[in-house]
């Protein structure tokens, strides 16, 4: 599978887009030649940047980690919705891509994706008919999730209504009590698997689940995820024993960005094609997933692990009282669902960034401001630039139409377009 980025050639960048220099109007191909440098003041702040070396490292690292364990990866591209990043993941060996919505699927098809997992049950007629239109293309290997009799019947009716000449490929979703979507028990799931097997319009090609939100009152989350993977492996075996899969290589797919190591190890014994769907690894973060990765490294001994690639840069706009700085970035620029941004770097007058000392902390955000407490002996000044790490990249990417790919000196190498 290859991603064709030619569609970006028609996109025009101008200063109506956050982060584009004032007065600029240019195409994607012209950005590198501008010689912009974020530290030199060439970009209005706030600006979102991705460090090129870290991005490349993370993409290769995850591909190697998964391959060494005999698994595949179909990264969940809802994280970035950036064709240039998706193209890198595919070039590094991704088996396919995962999307959350039909709109995301349509974007991926526009750029040439030919193996797509829709990790949700589509139920609306407009969405299902759009899927049918895309599935008519012979090059598309598409799999959709179902978790109910109604979803199965809707999928079958879509095939009939659109006169598709091949069955829709389905993944049966298994959930857990109190969780998100998915059949709550294996008994419910096996009954639905039989319903799919009996429908000529449909083809059961595997089992899907998402373990990332499991909570536990007793024991560790690792143990809870491991036990849940045992249930998934049992379900796969039940379906295989009844010959319910209509695929030469049925799939088990799971694995968010926190427990993918446990998922791969737990499902390896099934004899299935194990596909993980981690998405946030490609830029990593400074909060939620950094903590999870430290656990993984301690457990597996994984070396030279994932690196922070995504940063939000802002000015110190005001120091209204000792030890409090107001920065020019807020909730419109940084996701906060998994914690406030983390102040990491300081650049004075365009100098190379230095690490901020302990005691610097974002304590609140408004729409356009961040409140940063800092040690009163830190010589912070209005006009200084602060680099923020974030937690959970997904809810920061969708706040930016353009994110800059930068080198170690924060020279702009490329403008990266998102499609949210």
Would you write up a description of this structure?
The chain has helices at residues 52-68, 83-91, 102-110, 125-135, 149-161, 186-197, 221-241, 260-267, 288-300, 394-397; strands at 12-14, 25-27, 47-51, 72-73, 97-99, 115-118, 141-146, 168-173, 202-208, 251-254, 273-276, 310-321, 324-327, 342-347, 354-355, 361-365, 370-373, 385-389, 402-406, 412-417. By secondary structure, it is of the alpha/beta class. The chain folds into 2 domains: 6-51 and 306-417, D-serine dehydratase-like domain (Lyase, Ornithine Decarboxylase, Chain A, domain 1); 53-292, Alanine racemase (TIM Barrel, Alpha-Beta Barrel), CATH 3.20.20. The strands form 3 sheets. Strands 3, 12, 13, 14, 15, 16, 17, 18, 19 and 20 form a 10-stranded mixed beta sheet that branches. α3 (102-110) packs parallel to α4, α4 (125-135) crosses α5 and α7 (221-241) runs parallel beside α8 (260-267). 45% of the residues are buried.
| SS-based class | alpha/beta
* Oligomeric organization of the protein chains: single chain
The chain-level mean pLDDT equals 96
What fraction, in percent, of the residue positions are helical?
Answer: 25-40%
CATH architecture of the largest domain: Alpha-Beta Barrel
The total domain count is 2
| Terminal-residue CA separation | 23 Å
Largest sheet, if any?
A: 10 strands, mixed
CATH superfamily of the largest domain: Alanine racemase
List SSEs in N-to-C order: EEEHEHEHEHEHEHEHEHEHEEEEEEEHEE
Poorly predicted regions: none
Give the overall shape, derived from the CA principal axes: globular
Beta-strand share of residues: 15-25%
Number of helices: 10
Radius of gyration: 23 Å
CATH topology of the largest domain: TIM Barrel
CATH first level of the largest domain: which class? Alpha Beta
- Number-wise, the strands total 20
């Amino acid at each position: 599978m290859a991603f064709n980025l030619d569609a970006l050639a028609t996109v025009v960048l101008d200063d109506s887009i956050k982060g584009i220099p004032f007065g600029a109007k240019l195409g994607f191909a012209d950005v590198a030649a501008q010689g912009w440098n974020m530290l030199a003041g060439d970009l209005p702040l706030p600006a979102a940047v991705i460090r090129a070396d870290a991005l490349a490292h993370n993409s290769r690292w995850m591909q190697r980690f998964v391959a060494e364990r005999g698994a595949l990866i179909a990264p969940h591209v809802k994280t970035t919705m950036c064709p240039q990043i998706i193209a890198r993941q595919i070039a590094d060996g991704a088996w396919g891509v995962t999307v959350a919505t039909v709109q995301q699927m349509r974007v991926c098809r526009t750029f040439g994706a030919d193996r797509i997992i829709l990790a949700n049950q589509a139920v609306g007629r407009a969405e299902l008919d759009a899927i049918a239109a895309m599935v008519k293309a012979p090059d598309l290997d598409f799999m959709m999730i179902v978790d109910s009799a109604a979803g199965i019947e809707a999928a079958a009716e879509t095939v009939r209504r659109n006169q598709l000449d091949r069955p829709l490929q389905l993944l049966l979703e298994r959930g857990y009590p109190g969780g998100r979507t998915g059949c709550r028990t294996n008994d419910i799931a096996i009954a639905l698997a039989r319903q799919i097997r009996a429908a000529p319009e449909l083809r059961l090609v595997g089992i899907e689940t998402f373990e990332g939100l499991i909570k536990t009152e007793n024991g560790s989350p690792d143990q809870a995820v491991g036990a849940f993977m045992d249930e998934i492996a049992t379900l796969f075996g039940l379906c295989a024993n009844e010959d319910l899969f209509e695929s030469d290589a049925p799939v088990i797919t799971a694995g968010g960005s926190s427990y993918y190591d446990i998922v791969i190890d737990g499902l390896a014994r099934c004899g299935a094609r194990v596909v993980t769907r981690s998405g946030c690894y490609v830029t990593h973060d400074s909060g939620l997933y950094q903590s999870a990765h430290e656990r993984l490294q301690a457990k597996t001994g994984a070396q030279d692990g994932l690196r922070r690639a995504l940063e939000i840069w802002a000015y110190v706009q005001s120091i209204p009282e000792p030890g409090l700085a107001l920065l020019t970035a807020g909730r419109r620029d940084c996701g906060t669902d998994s914690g406030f941004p983390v102040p990491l770097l300081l650049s004075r007058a365009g100098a190379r960034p230095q690490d901020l000392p302990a005691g610097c902390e974002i304590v609140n955000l408004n729409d356009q401001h961040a409140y940063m407490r800092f040690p009163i002996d830190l010589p912070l000044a209005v006009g200084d630039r602060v680099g923020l790490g974030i937690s959970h990249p997904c809810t920061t990417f969708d706040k930016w139409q353009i994110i800059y790919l930068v080198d170690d000196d924060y020279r702009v190498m490329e403008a990266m377009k998102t499609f949210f």
